[in-house]
């Protein structure tokens, strides 16, 4: 593998004397480099949107969103997946993060795991991948064997594949049904793709999961109405959301939340429409949990 041709592995001319700078100057260099990351995503917004539409279709047909990667890229996928259940009340099996080397690799480097194409294949096999699923492979270089092995297997199962990479014309991009090349260029510290490349990947993963949840009806206005009130902070957040969405008092919100066993969305429906507690859940179920649609149809009867 000729790493010298990868943009992520080239030396950054702006930081060749970084080891001679003061602490503040080092920080300024890092900050200056980071300022340009978001603009690198602008050229691929349509590609991200296309992936989101595929993910929503998957969700509506009992499919899953599966992130897969090695090292930093794998960790970012696992992180994004792990945030979906508490934020949107989803089944942990709906958005899945897979990292080369398994859970141990979240905190430790696993020698050779990213170079094992067969491991990528076997990890997806273990998930019983089907054509209903969407696989997003993540790698700054765009040529990680682990990811390529996983993508090739996904192709045999007719699952939709996307490649989130930070290099141009990479093998992963060419293999995928759609590529998301975010070209962040040379890092402050040469080859340290946990920096600009990792930041860009995190931003794109935020977009994919958040937009998918919005389009799937997990957000009402801009409120996370499927939040799971599993601790004191989240209970208060749920009450605040109910107040914002319904115009009720905090006391009314608390009572409705208790009526609904912690179901924020059902509590809002109950307060907005005035129906009995049991009726709110029934109405939401009839509209597949889409709160705005359920309220609109109920009030128009």
Automatic annotation (TrEMBL):
It catalyses: N-acetyl-D-muramate 6-phosphate + H2O = N-acetyl-D-glucosamine 6-phosphate + (R)-lactate. Belongs to the GCKR-like family. MurNAc-6-P etherase subfamily. It holds the Pfam family GKRP_SIS_N. Its EC number is 4.2.1.126. This is N-acetylmuramic acid 6-phosphate etherase. It comes from Fictibacillus halophilus. The gene is murQ. SUPFAM superfamilies: SIS domain (SSF53697). Specifically catalyzes the cleavage of the D-lactyl ether substituent of MurNAc 6-phosphate, producing GlcNAc 6-phosphate and D-lactate.
């Amino acid at each position: 593998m000729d790493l010298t041709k990868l943009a992520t592995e080239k030396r950054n001319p702006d930081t060749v004397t970084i080891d001679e700078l003061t602490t503040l100057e080092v920080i300024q260099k890092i900050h200056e480099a980071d300022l340009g990351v978001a603009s690198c995503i602008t050229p691929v917004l349509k590609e991200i949107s296309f992936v989101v539409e595929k993910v929503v279709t998957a969700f509506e047909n009992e499919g899953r969103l599966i992130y897969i990667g090695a090292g930093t890229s794998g960790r970012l996928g696992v992180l994004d997946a792990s945030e979906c259940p508490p934020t949107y009340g989803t089944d942990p099996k709906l958005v899945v993060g897979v990292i080369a080397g398994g859970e141990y690799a979240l905190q430790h480097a696993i020698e050779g795991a990213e170079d094992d194409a067969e491991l990528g294949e076997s990890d997806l096999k273990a998930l019983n991948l089907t054509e209903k699923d969407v696989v997003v492979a993540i790698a700054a270089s765009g040529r990680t064997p682990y990811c390529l092995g996983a993508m090739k297997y996904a192709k045999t199962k007719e699952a939709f594949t996307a490649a989130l990479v930070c290099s141009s014309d990479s093998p992963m991009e060419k293999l995928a049904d759609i590529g998301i090349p975010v070209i962040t260029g040379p890092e402050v510290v040469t080859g340290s793709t946990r920096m600009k490349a990792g930041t860009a990947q995190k931003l794109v993963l935020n977009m994919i999961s958040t937009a998918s949840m919005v389009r799937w009806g997990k957000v009402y206005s801009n409120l996370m109405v499927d939040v799971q009130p599993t601790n004191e902070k989240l209970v208060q957040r749920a009450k605040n959301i109910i107040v914002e969405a319904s115009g009720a008092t905090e006391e009314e919100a608390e009572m409705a939340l208790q009526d609904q066993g912690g179901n924020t969305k059902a509590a809002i429906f109950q307060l907005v429409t005035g129906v009995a507690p049991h009726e709110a859940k029934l109405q939401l179920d009839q509209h597949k949990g889409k709160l705005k649609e359920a309220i609109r149809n109920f009030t128009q009867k």
